[in-house]
Protein backbone atom coordinates (compact mmCIF):
# COMPACT_ATOMS: atom_id res chain seq x y z
CA UNK A 1 0.00 0.00 0.00
CA UNK A 2 1.28 3.44 -0.99
CA UNK A 3 0.05 6.65 0.60
CA UNK A 4 0.56 10.08 -0.93
CA UNK A 5 0.31 12.67 1.83
CA UNK A 6 -0.50 16.04 0.32
CA UNK A 7 -1.99 15.17 -3.06
CA UNK A 8 -1.59 18.52 -4.78
CA UNK A 9 -0.38 18.98 -8.35
CA UNK A 10 2.78 16.90 -8.01
CA UNK A 11 1.11 14.34 -5.76
CA UNK A 12 -1.73 13.93 -8.22
CA UNK A 13 0.73 13.61 -11.10
CA UNK A 14 2.50 10.79 -9.26
CA UNK A 15 -0.85 9.20 -8.43
CA UNK A 16 -1.98 9.19 -12.05
CA UNK A 17 1.43 7.89 -13.16
CA UNK A 18 1.25 4.99 -10.72
CA UNK A 19 -2.17 4.04 -12.04
CA UNK A 20 -0.91 4.19 -15.64
CA UNK A 21 1.99 1.97 -14.59
CA UNK A 22 -0.41 -0.74 -13.45
CA UNK A 23 -1.07 -0.05 -9.78
CA UNK A 24 -4.65 -0.65 -8.70
CA UNK A 25 -6.63 2.19 -7.10
CA UNK A 26 -7.07 0.00 -4.04
CA UNK A 27 -3.28 0.00 -3.56
CA UNK A 28 -3.06 3.80 -3.20
CA UNK A 29 -4.24 6.13 -0.45
CA UNK A 30 -4.36 9.92 -0.80
CA UNK A 31 -4.60 12.70 1.76
CA UNK A 32 -5.80 16.24 1.10
CA UNK A 33 -6.99 19.21 3.14
CA UNK A 34 -10.25 20.11 1.42
CA UNK A 35 -13.31 17.81 1.18
CA UNK A 36 -14.06 18.94 -2.39
CA UNK A 37 -10.52 18.01 -3.42
CA UNK A 38 -10.93 14.58 -1.83
CA UNK A 39 -14.19 14.06 -3.73
CA UNK A 40 -12.51 15.02 -7.02
CA UNK A 41 -9.69 12.52 -6.48
CA UNK A 42 -12.10 9.72 -5.61
CA UNK A 43 -14.28 10.41 -8.65
CA UNK A 44 -11.35 10.80 -11.06
CA UNK A 45 -9.07 7.98 -9.94
CA UNK A 46 -11.13 5.71 -7.69
CA UNK A 47 -8.58 5.90 -4.86
CA UNK A 48 -9.45 6.15 -1.20
CA UNK A 49 -8.87 9.46 0.56
CA UNK A 50 -8.00 9.24 4.26
CA UNK A 51 -6.53 11.30 7.07
CA UNK A 52 -2.76 11.70 7.43
CA UNK A 53 -2.82 9.55 10.55
CA UNK A 54 -4.74 6.73 8.86
CA UNK A 55 -2.33 6.84 5.93
CA UNK A 56 0.65 6.63 8.28
CA UNK A 57 -0.88 3.64 10.04
CA UNK A 58 -1.96 1.75 6.91
CA UNK A 59 0.60 2.18 4.13
CA UNK A 60 3.93 0.41 3.62
CA UNK A 61 5.31 3.43 1.75
CA UNK A 62 4.60 7.05 2.62
CA UNK A 63 5.19 9.77 0.02
CA UNK A 64 5.33 13.16 1.72
CA UNK A 65 4.34 15.64 -0.98
CA UNK A 66 3.25 18.67 1.03
CA UNK A 67 4.83 22.10 0.60
CA UNK A 68 8.18 22.59 2.37
CA UNK A 69 6.70 25.03 4.88
CA UNK A 70 4.04 22.46 5.85
CA UNK A 71 6.41 19.52 6.32
CA UNK A 72 7.18 20.12 10.00
CA UNK A 73 3.50 20.13 10.95
CA UNK A 74 2.82 16.99 8.93
CA UNK A 75 5.71 15.10 10.52
CA UNK A 76 4.59 16.15 14.00
CA UNK A 77 1.11 14.79 13.21
CA UNK A 78 2.18 11.40 11.85
CA UNK A 79 5.35 10.69 13.88
CA UNK A 80 3.61 8.66 16.63
CA UNK A 81 2.19 6.30 13.97
CA UNK A 82 5.25 5.66 11.77
CA UNK A 83 7.13 2.46 12.71
CA UNK A 84 10.81 1.95 12.00
CA UNK A 85 10.18 -0.34 9.01
CA UNK A 86 8.10 2.21 7.07
CA UNK A 87 9.67 3.57 3.87
CA UNK A 88 9.26 7.36 3.90
CA UNK A 89 9.81 9.30 0.67
CA UNK A 90 10.04 13.07 0.97
CA UNK A 91 9.31 15.06 -2.16
CA UNK A 92 9.42 18.66 -0.91
CA UNK A 93 12.03 21.16 -2.05
CA UNK A 94 14.78 21.77 0.49
CA UNK A 95 13.59 19.21 3.05
CA UNK A 96 16.53 17.01 4.04
CA UNK A 97 16.37 13.39 5.10
CA UNK A 98 17.89 14.42 8.45
CA UNK A 99 14.99 16.86 8.99
CA UNK A 100 12.50 14.03 8.46
CA UNK A 101 14.44 11.45 10.48
CA UNK A 102 14.79 13.78 13.46
CA UNK A 103 11.08 14.58 13.60
CA UNK A 104 9.92 10.99 13.11
CA UNK A 105 11.99 9.92 16.10
CA UNK A 106 12.53 6.38 14.78
CA UNK A 107 15.20 4.91 12.51
CA UNK A 108 12.86 4.74 9.54
CA UNK A 109 14.41 4.59 6.05
CA UNK A 110 13.96 7.98 4.39
CA UNK A 111 14.59 8.67 0.71
CA UNK A 112 14.61 12.21 -0.65
CA UNK A 113 13.17 12.77 -4.13
CA UNK A 114 13.00 15.79 -6.40
CA UNK A 115 10.83 15.28 -9.47
CA UNK A 116 9.21 17.72 -11.91
CA UNK A 117 5.93 18.38 -13.68
CA UNK A 118 6.54 16.29 -16.85
CA UNK A 119 5.68 13.39 -14.54
CA UNK A 120 2.14 14.00 -15.87
CA UNK A 121 3.31 12.69 -19.26
CA UNK A 122 5.70 10.00 -17.98
CA UNK A 123 8.72 12.18 -18.81
CA UNK A 124 9.79 13.27 -15.33
CA UNK A 125 13.34 13.77 -14.15
CA UNK A 126 13.48 12.38 -10.63
CA UNK A 127 16.60 12.60 -8.47
CA UNK A 128 16.79 10.32 -5.41
CA UNK A 129 19.07 10.29 -2.37
CA UNK A 130 19.19 7.92 0.60
CA UNK A 131 18.97 9.03 4.21
CA UNK A 132 21.11 7.58 6.97
CA UNK A 133 18.82 4.57 7.55
CA UNK A 134 17.95 3.83 3.91
CA UNK A 135 19.78 1.14 1.97
CA UNK A 136 19.83 -0.36 -1.50
CA UNK A 137 16.44 -2.03 -1.02
CA UNK A 138 14.77 1.28 -0.19
CA UNK A 139 16.38 3.09 -3.11
CA UNK A 140 15.20 0.34 -5.45
CA UNK A 141 11.65 0.50 -4.10
CA UNK A 142 11.66 4.25 -4.66
CA UNK A 143 13.03 3.83 -8.17
CA UNK A 144 10.37 1.22 -8.94
CA UNK A 145 7.72 3.83 -8.11
CA UNK A 146 9.32 6.52 -10.27
CA UNK A 147 10.70 4.59 -13.27
CA UNK A 148 7.26 4.28 -14.95
CA UNK A 149 6.88 8.07 -14.98
CA UNK A 150 10.27 9.12 -16.33
CA UNK A 151 14.00 8.94 -15.72
CA UNK A 152 15.48 8.37 -12.27
CA UNK A 153 18.97 9.41 -11.20
CA UNK A 154 20.69 8.68 -7.90
CA UNK A 155 22.65 11.64 -6.55
CA UNK A 156 24.32 12.52 -3.24
CA UNK A 157 21.94 14.44 -1.01
CA UNK A 158 24.39 17.35 -0.99
CA UNK A 159 23.38 17.91 -4.65
CA UNK A 160 19.61 17.88 -4.06
CA UNK A 161 19.19 21.64 -3.68
CA UNK A 162 20.99 22.09 -7.00
CA UNK A 163 18.78 19.42 -8.59
CA UNK A 164 15.70 21.26 -7.34
CA UNK A 165 16.87 24.45 -9.05
CA UNK A 166 18.04 22.74 -12.22
CA UNK A 167 15.49 20.03 -13.04
CA UNK A 168 12.75 20.58 -10.46
CA UNK A 169 12.18 24.14 -11.69
CA UNK A 170 13.68 23.39 -15.11
CA UNK A 171 10.45 22.97 -17.11
CA UNK A 172 9.42 26.51 -16.18
CA UNK A 173 12.61 27.87 -17.74
CA UNK A 174 11.78 26.16 -21.02
CA UNK A 175 8.18 27.41 -20.96
CA UNK A 176 9.55 30.91 -20.36
CA UNK A 177 11.91 30.49 -23.32
CA UNK A 178 9.11 29.21 -25.57
CA UNK A 179 6.93 32.15 -24.55
CA UNK A 180 9.70 34.59 -25.50
CA UNK A 181 10.38 32.86 -28.83
CA UNK A 182 6.68 32.86 -29.74
CA UNK A 183 6.52 36.57 -28.97
CA UNK A 184 9.50 37.05 -31.27
CA UNK A 185 7.67 35.19 -34.02
CA UNK A 186 4.65 37.46 -33.59
CA UNK A 187 6.95 40.49 -33.74
CA UNK A 188 8.23 39.18 -37.08
CA UNK A 189 4.67 38.86 -38.44
CA UNK A 190 3.95 35.20 -37.67
CA UNK A 191 0.50 34.14 -36.41
CA UNK A 192 0.65 33.01 -32.76
CA UNK A 193 -0.56 29.46 -33.48
CA UNK A 194 2.03 28.93 -36.22
CA UNK A 195 4.82 30.40 -34.09
CA UNK A 196 3.88 28.13 -31.18
CA UNK A 197 3.85 25.05 -33.43
CA UNK A 198 7.29 25.92 -34.81
CA UNK A 199 8.86 26.62 -31.44
CA UNK A 200 7.28 23.61 -29.72
CA UNK A 201 8.42 21.15 -32.36
CA UNK A 202 11.86 22.75 -32.46
CA UNK A 203 12.35 22.36 -28.74
CA UNK A 204 11.01 18.77 -28.75
CA UNK A 205 13.25 17.87 -31.69
CA UNK A 206 16.28 19.49 -30.07
CA UNK A 207 15.63 17.63 -26.80
CA UNK A 208 15.36 14.27 -28.60
CA UNK A 209 18.57 14.98 -30.53
CA UNK A 210 20.37 15.87 -27.32
CA UNK A 211 19.09 12.75 -25.55
CA UNK A 212 19.54 10.23 -28.35
CA UNK A 213 22.61 11.43 -30.27
CA UNK A 214 25.04 11.25 -27.38
CA UNK A 215 26.63 14.46 -28.64
CA UNK A 216 27.65 17.33 -26.38
CA UNK A 217 25.28 20.33 -26.67
CA UNK A 218 28.17 22.49 -27.91
CA UNK A 219 28.69 20.12 -30.86
CA UNK A 220 24.97 20.13 -31.69
CA UNK A 221 24.81 23.92 -31.52
CA UNK A 222 27.91 24.34 -33.67
CA UNK A 223 26.34 22.10 -36.32
CA UNK A 224 23.60 24.73 -36.74
CA UNK A 225 25.93 27.72 -36.49
CA UNK A 226 27.37 28.48 -39.93
CA UNK A 227 30.08 31.15 -40.28
CA UNK A 228 28.48 34.52 -40.89
CA UNK A 229 24.98 33.00 -40.83
CA UNK A 230 21.71 33.72 -39.13
CA UNK A 231 22.28 31.53 -36.07
CA UNK A 232 25.59 33.11 -35.09
CA UNK A 233 23.96 36.53 -35.41
CA UNK A 234 21.30 35.42 -32.93
CA UNK A 235 23.87 33.84 -30.60
CA UNK A 236 25.89 37.05 -30.61
CA UNK A 237 22.81 38.98 -29.46
CA UNK A 238 22.13 36.46 -26.69
CA UNK A 239 25.72 36.84 -25.50
CA UNK A 240 25.52 40.63 -25.73
CA UNK A 241 22.51 40.53 -23.40
CA UNK A 242 24.29 38.14 -21.00
CA UNK A 243 21.64 35.43 -21.32
CA UNK A 244 24.07 32.72 -20.22
CA UNK A 245 25.01 34.69 -17.09
CA UNK A 246 21.33 35.33 -16.39
CA UNK A 247 20.61 31.59 -16.41
CA UNK A 248 23.50 30.95 -14.03
CA UNK A 249 22.21 33.61 -11.64
CA UNK A 250 18.58 32.45 -11.96
CA UNK A 251 19.32 28.82 -11.15
CA UNK A 252 21.51 29.85 -8.22
CA UNK A 253 18.63 32.03 -6.96
CA UNK A 254 16.25 29.06 -7.23
CA UNK A 255 18.67 26.96 -5.18
CA UNK A 256 18.85 29.65 -2.49
CA UNK A 257 15.06 30.08 -2.39
CA UNK A 258 14.59 26.35 -1.88
CA UNK A 259 16.81 26.51 1.17
CA UNK A 260 14.86 29.49 2.50
CA UNK A 261 11.53 27.66 2.12
CA UNK A 262 12.86 24.63 3.93
CA UNK A 263 14.10 26.73 6.84
CA UNK A 264 10.67 28.34 7.22
UniProtKB/TrEMBL annotation:
It is an enzyme of class 1 (oxidoreductase). Its EC number is 1.5.1.2. Residues 2-94 form the Pyrroline-5-carboxylate reductase catalytic N-terminal domain. Pfam families: F420_oxidored, P5CR_dimer. Residues 157-261 form the Pyrroline-5-carboxylate reductase dimerisation domain. Its main location: cytoplasm. SUPFAM superfamilies: 6-phosphogluconate dehydrogenase C-terminal domain-like, NAD(P)-binding Rossmann-fold domains. GO terms for biological process: L-proline biosynthetic process. GO terms for cellular component: cytoplasm. Pathway: Amino-acid biosynthesis; L-proline biosynthesis; L-proline from L-glutamate 5-semialdehyde: step 1/1. It catalyses: L-proline + NAD(+) = (S)-1-pyrroline-5-carboxylate + NADH + 2 H(+); L-proline + NADP(+) = (S)-1-pyrroline-5-carboxylate + NADPH + 2 H(+). The keyword Methyltransferase does not apply. NADP(+) binds at residues 5-10, 65-68. Keywords: Amino-acid biosynthesis, Cytoplasm, NADP, Oxidoreductase, Proline biosynthesis. The keyword Cytoplasm applies. InterPro entries: 6-PGluconate_DH-like_C_sf (IPR008927), NAD(P)-bd_dom_sf (IPR036291), P5C_Rdtase_cat_N (IPR028939), P5CR-like_CS (IPR053790), P5CR_dimer (IPR029036), Pyrroline-COOH_reductase (IPR000304). It is found in: Cytoplasm. GO terms for molecular function: pyrroline-5-carboxylate reductase activity. NADPH binds at residue 52. Belongs to the pyrroline-5-carboxylate reductase family. This is Pyrroline-5-carboxylate reductase. The gene is proC.
